[in-house]
Amino acid sequence: MDYVARLPDRHRYPVALAPCHETNLPLSRPRHDGVWTLTFYTAAWGLEVGRRFDEDFVELIGGDAPIYLLGKAAGTAIGPAGGDARRYERHWTPVHPDFAVEDLDSAIARAVAAGAVQEGETCEAPYGRLAMFADPFGHGFCLIEFSEKGYDALLA
Hints:
9 strands, 17% helix, four-stranded mixed β-sheet, single chain, alpha+beta, five-stranded mixed β-sheet
């Protein structure tokens, strides 16, 4: 049995995050372009719109964890004491989602067709193949096609 098949269902697609009561992934998106933002995320990752809390707060479903798109205007403060402003050109962040996929080449084509930019060549690693991207809003993400051993290959 391959690595992804051995993962509990809740950890297969699309995001694995630290355990908490309800795992989800909030992503800020440009406020002025909500329709296009939804088009990118649903086309690139095969997700569907779940609940619409208001025009700036939408839930995407179809993976193991819901993704919440939060409309935040560029230039607004990141928080009361954040010391920075939101920007949607490519930016570094210490946290980004990794999406486990069964067919990396198809997933790459789908992400690029939706507007993602692949950053560098597809890489081979002991645990599988991966590709790194930026979405149209500056967020980084990776697509990973696990080998049969997956991350267990790093323990050998």
